[in-house]
Amino acid sequence: MRRLPIVVLLLAACVGLATLGAVDDQVSSAGGAPDAIQVTADVVATGIPGAGAITQIGTFHTGGPLHDNAVLIAGSTDPGHVLDRTRLFVASTSNFGATRAIADEPEGSILSIDASGSRVDVPPAFACAICVGQPQPSAAGGAVILYTAQSPAFINSANGNTAAVTNSLPAVSLPLGISLNSGFGRPWFANVPSGSAGDGTITVIDPNGAPLRGAPSPVAGGVFAGNLTNRTPATLHGLSAGALATALLTKSPDPATNGRAVFLAALADGSVAQVHVQLGVDDLLPPGSFSALPDISTERAESDSAAIATRVGMLFNWVPTRTVFISDPLADRILAFDLVDDGHVFKPANVRYLNSPALNRPVDLAPAAREVSARNFASNTTLGGGSDFYVLNRGNNTVVRMTQAGDVVAVRGVVAAAQSDRDVSGIRLNGIAVSEDAKTLWMTATAPGRQGFVLRMAAFGSGTVTTDLLNQARGNLPPNQGADIFSHDMTTSQALGPLFNDQSCSGCHNTPAAGGMGADAQSFVTRVARSKHGEFELVPGHAGPIARQHSIAELGTSCGLPTGVPPQANLTSLRSATFFYGLNR
User: Fold this and answer.
1) CA 501, CA 395: separation in Å to the nearest integer?
2) Which of 224, 363, 396, 558 has its Cβ near the most Cβ atoms within 10 Å?
3) Rounded CA gap, 36 and 401, in Å?
4) Which run of H or E residues covers position 572?
């Protein structure tokens, strides 16, 4: 199996699935958007002021530093430790008692939370232990660990970047965005240390919570800031406004970088920058590309007001078209644009906006299926190819599932489950993430009195076939689920047909193992086309270039379509079913 998030696409190619339908939500007469179905979300963590950006940490890939480098990892990815794949990263406006590295800049931290057990109540000053030589203190029996904070233990020079122009700057300060390079890198954070109009920072952080050791950019180390870390003087804007969100793209197209990472940064003035971990910051989109967010501060980030937005969400779709999506909360829309490159930097193309009456202060985005398999793209902010995405609306506490074309699939209104020891009726949603297996949504919320929560509810809106296949797949890890689905014999109730070549993907793609090529007559396919007046064309009315050998009539379901080569075809070619190994690299 190549990759779980596009398993349905692969199945369609292998066995000829019909189009998969979405959940049958009631459709409102107002603007064509589905009515919101109310869902009660579990409260899994409390005591997190300004709770905002959130993600499941997830699995780090073989070949990447957080999988292979035992010295660097130092046990941090082991079960129960700070980078355990099942834990959550949650951004907060608080240092939780840790001393500030820069006295006149806002506090901020990233917590690592184990939400698998009973509710986690984060103590307000548990990180004061950092003062006595415990750089990543924990509380609640290890259920909460301080990953990093605006504190001296986590400044840029702590991991040896003493020559960097940003050597005194911390890993985080009012952190508002999180993106993980799960394939070949580390966590990245977007920060607003100096308000909306002041310099923003984008940071890349090691397992010990300090900025990148042995950084490929001696100028930046692990902290990119303002115009100090631009690639060239021709970069006019850099990170000269607060950084609201960040998202992994992939390896740099510049051959001088030897495949180093590039991330995007959405800034408070509505601009977008690209951050090359080796070469520095380049401009991408100008200010005003999405609505600027003014007056960002700790107080506003902790607010429970529906009208106040201090965050945006950003996602990247890598295949078949490289597309970026950024929520625009003050305009109730989503900015979308495609990416091309000139062999050195990325360039925007086809800039557009997605509008819907279902959008109401959209402050965050999350993939419906995050990219977990393709090593060069794997991230919490990368969409599995063609995946829908979730939009978190702060204005009315709803979550919208939307296609990449902007069509609304389903809507859920979110309320927090009642708690015996605190009032959760005034929550205001602030962040969203999807679990690695695409079954669970994690959300953050703010509330009066600097309260901050983590909520959990089931994912929704996928076709019934996708849900059924995921539920029956063996194992919890996405690769195990993908392998199970790849070899599963589809039925007509699971949208097989009407014409197909085999009931499972592995029926054709099977040598030397599932995911390999076809090696016998039963796994060969016939490509079909037509030559007309000397011009080549696909066969009109035939779904795709492959002839199908079987029909659902063989399984007892009526079907009037003929199998084999369609009569309109006058060109055929016998081919072995292709292999999927290595296509994710």
Assistant:
1) 48
2) 224
3) 11
4) strand 571-576
DSSP alpha helix (H) spans, 56-178? 65-68, 70-73
Domain map of the chain by residue range?
A: 4-17+495-576, 37-462
Which amino acid, 578?
T
Q: Provide the CA 424 distance to its chain's centre, in angstroms.
A: 28
Contact residues for 231 (Cβ-Cβ < 8 A; gap 6+): 276, 279, 280, 281, 282, 345
Q: Is 417 exposed, middle or buried (0-12, 13-18, 19+ CB in 10 A)?
A: middle
Per DSSP, the residues of 415-457 read EEPPBTTB--TT-EEEEEEE-TTSSEEEEEEEETTTEEEEEEE
Give the model confidence (pLDDT) of 250-286 as tens digits.
999 999 888 899 999 999 999 999 999 999 999 999 9
Closest listed residue to residue 244, CA positions, set 304, 290, 299, 286: 290
Per-residue pLDDT band at 9 (split at 50, 70, 90) = very low
With vertex at residue 147, the alpha carbon angle to CA 390 and CA 281, rounded to the nearest 5 degrees, is 65
Residue 81: pLDDT over 60: yes
> Residue 332 is encoded by which pair of tokens?
């109730």
- CATH of span 37-462: 2.120.10.30
The answer to whether 21 and 468 are in contact (CB under 8 A) is no
Reduced to 3 states (helix: H, G, I; strand: E, B; else coil), residue 507 is helix
Q: Are 259 and 281 in contact (CB under 8 A)?
A: no
**Cα gap 245→227, rounded to integer Å:** 18
- Say how many Å lie between the first and final Cα of the chain, rounded: 13
Report the pLDDT averaged over residues 180-192: 97
